[in-house]
Amino acid sequence: MDAPYDEPLIKDVRYLGSYDLIKQDLIIIPGSPRVWDPPSTPFTIYPGKVKTKRRHRKPTDLGLELLFTAVDVMATPISWPDVDIICDRRALRILYNWINGKRDGFKIDLQPLGARALLLCEA
Q1: Residue 14, domain member (yes or no)
Q2: Is pLDDT larger for residue 27 or for residue 83?
Q3: Phi/psi at 25 (nearest 5 deg)?
Q4: DSSP string computed for 33-44
Q5: What values do phi and psi take at 2, rounded to 5?
Q6: Which of 7, 56, 65, 67 has its CA at a distance of 20 to 30 angstroms from the CA of residue 42?
Q7: Is 1 part of a structural domain of the chain?
Q8: Which domain holds residue 105?
Q9: For residues 87 and 85, what is the distance between their CA atoms, to the nearest angstrom?
Q10: Is residue 10 part of a domain?
Q11: Does residue 7 form part of some domain?
């Protein structure tokens, strides 16, 4: 049985913007995320407790409003109706892991926007 649709095609992918939520009422709009720089090998993992600088996700009632604000501040003017998928990094990471076989439970809110865009946000 042939599929009633063409094979999906990913093209014209581009980075639009990002932000970091520091406090409930403060965001930083940095530009692009860091490029992965793997550590030189061999390396030693030290036993015991180690403090990290990793920040944990902070809850916000603003949803993706912060993302839209960051893009509006950083980018050249965007025609939002021409954007196909809008999502936060967490939702994108969850979907990527699921596609690659990781079967942990998750919930993502999916909302259609206009005729062709999808809004994805971790629920």
Answers
A1: no
A2: 83
A3: -115, 20
A4: PPPP-PPPSS--
A5: -80, 145
A6: 56
A7: no
A8: 20-33+42-122
A9: 6
A10: no
A11: no
Among residues 121, 59, 48, 31, the alpha carbon closest in space to that of 85 is found at 121
pLDDT class of 56 with cuts at 50, 70, 90: very low
Under DSSP, the state recorded for 81 is G
Number of folded domains that form the chain: 1
pLDDT(59) > 60: no
Percent of the chain with pLDDT over 70: 67
Return the DSSP state at 85: E
Rounded-to-integer distance, Cα 99 and Cα 103, Å: 9
| pLDDT (average), residues 43-66 | 61
Instruction: Return mean pLDDT, the chain.
Output: 73
Q: Which residues have C-beta within 8 Å of that of residue 13, sequence separation ≥ 6?
A: none
Q: How far is CA 93 from the centre of its chain?
A: 7
Q: Is the peptide bond before 4 cis (omega within 30 degrees of 0)?
A: no
Structure tokens at 59: 């809850």
